[in-house]
Amino acid sequence: EMTSFFLSSSPHIRSGETTPRIMLSVILALLPAAAWGVWKFGAHAATVIACSVVACVLIEYVTQRFVFRKPPRFRDGSAALTGLLLACCLPPEIPLWQVVIGAFFAIFIAKECFGGLGHNIFNPALIGRAALLASFPVTMTTWQVDGVTTASPLAMFKHQFGRPGPSYLDLFLGNIPGSIGEVSKLLLLLGALFLLWRGIISLYTPLGFIAVVAALSPFFGRDPLAELLAGGLILGAFFMATDYVTTPLFTPGKILFGAGCGLFTVLIRNLGAYPEGVCYSILIMNILVPLIDRFTAPRVFGRRKA
Hints:
The chain is an all-alpha fold. The chain has helices at 19-41, 43-67, 78-88, 96-109, 124-135, 137-140, 153-159, 168-173, 185-198, 204-216, 224-229, 233-240, 251-271, 278-296; strands at 143-145, 148-150.
């Protein structure tokens, strides 16, 4: 009796994880923080989230089906996750037509024009946010709480408006103005713990990111703990800087990537025009990923060094 063998390329260790399962896990990890944003900021925040997710999925489907003429892959969940991440980075009062523009830049420009999932060099959601920040700076930096326009905690810390900033507890729980999904650090950290338990992310990049921000902030006269709890650092460190496609492959590279994100975040926050620097810091480091991978790749035994 003959037995048939099927050979495939390495790796030969198979995992039960699939792209849809990974995307669903990240979505589930983000939902509590997004739900807090809806409860805190009102029904329009929920509409922003729904609009962002639907727009990203539809733009991906239309782009793949009619522009690049390839089988649509929206069922893998990556477009829905991009839409949720983009919404988490947006102010709760943003007009919906601007959300659609951000979704277009995230999916069509940053993802599909580079070849689709696995080929993009920039984090799509952050490209969408960066495009909106460059195009509509007033909208993207205006915060409303109970109908009253107010400054974000980072802007208060940076420009010292003459009134005390929010307490550490309010910063941690999310009783502050800010983007929809970034305000509750408690719920973001619980989501990150879920992803760590599932083995979806590792701590190398987030810890490098957080450690550098905490270490460098005092040199600019800033409170390290307040810098960690204000703004989008926790969201960026655990949910953006850990993206599989746009971050380094190897452990030393992950640490270096996180440290670089932390360095640029501190520099932009303190020396730049905007009070927040997480978005641009991650995008800058995305550019350096091929170089980081080149110099941090482990040695292959048996091969002569070039």
